[in-house]
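Same chain as my last thread, 490 residues:
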Amino acid sequence: MMRPVTADLLIEGGTIVAFDGKEHRQLEGGYVAIAGDEIVGLGKSFVGEAKRRIDARGRIVIPGQISTHAHIGAHEGPRLLIDAGRRDFIRSSFLHFLPTRRDGGPGFMAPQDARASLRYGFATLLRHGVTTVLAFAPAGPRDGELMLEVAAEFGIRLVWAPVVAGGRYWLEGDGRVVRELDDAAGRKSLEAAARFVEAHRGALDGRLSGVIALDEYYVSSPALRREAKQVARALGVPFTLHFVEQHREFFETMVATGQTPVQCLAEEEVLDEGTILAHCVYIASHGAVAYPLEDDIAILGASKVNVAHSPVAFARRGLALESFSRYRRAGVNVALGTDTYPLDMFSEMRMASLMNKLADNNHEEAPAADVFAASNLAGAQALGRPDLGRIAPGAKADLVIVDPRALAFGINPDPIRALVHLATPDMIDTVIVAGRALVEGKRLLVADEDEILDAAQRSSHAVWQGHAAHDLLGRSVAERFPPALRAWTE
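reply #2:
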């Protein structure tokens, strides 16, 4: 006989994507019982008492989505780059706005309102169903206090420590962008990141966890990468870095070492289940590299490393991972990241599936169940968190309720295939993190969306209006990145 359960919140009815200990299962008309910050009951028939109930009939209840790689903000720079940008950067976008002027001129992002941008980013993640996010960001104002303040305001589950920077990019007076390694600065920032992790264990009521995030493979030395990985192991937190997201990374590594970047990481002993490679696109087998003499994917798979796949931003630059399914078959744990705007996991799932089908010329690749699991279970695995990414007793109460009643979604025989290929963020009705509703009735409960949008708009316009002061030729945004349509003239 089922023992009675006392729940703070009971979600009942609808289609529940439940975890049976091995895989997701489709539970129709069941219930999820929550007490405190945990799921305490799951099944067909609820027995017990509940302080509050949510009727989920006609809706889909899914695990909270996990973004394993995100730059949280308004993304003033990337928004300028659709259909545009310097050709010599070979598809890279961030090189247009990240480098510092060598002559000491103002940085592109100098006019940004950091708080407004962060609040916009966190609000977007929540409204789009992301309940846990691994953030890539420097310490920012007041040594990380601003990031923690905004994360606390929005109630999201945050994986973060200030990034470790092993060098930087410079914008030279002749227009060239060059990199400069700096191991001393890298070690100093690594020590600061380690102190941050130790000092903030269990912060935000347990919603903050640490990570050692090395900004880039390309702007770091082998010694720093080894040290950073060793620190992550000692702290018991994940290690992550941007990896082969630029065309030049592969070829310059081959020229310098005679090995592929993947082979270098393997030799440096940083590839294992606790490492998350952000992007990992330009490897030996990729069509844009065309170096068939090494099997990088086999090396990655043998190490059981994690890849944070963010297909939307790369598709905008005409590039795709080759491929989601191929990496998974080799043993790589492919999770999803929301990277840049719109910080929307539904877009990432859809693009991951479609780009895989195109890359492999096979409509059966990247099936919906695999891509959906990449947004939750794979992310939990990458973070070493078996209590996240699933609806199961004992798991953290991070859930999302989707209202699919919309013409765009339509009537579908399979809710998961429909979610991956048809769902949009405006269908998300409720978002719960650690048992607390942060979004309900398709509105944020923790902040005013209109105020967030207004502040982000002011910040963005200030950045764009200040572009001429950053640009070496004094060009405005419209001159450097011409609009899609010319202005009306009388």
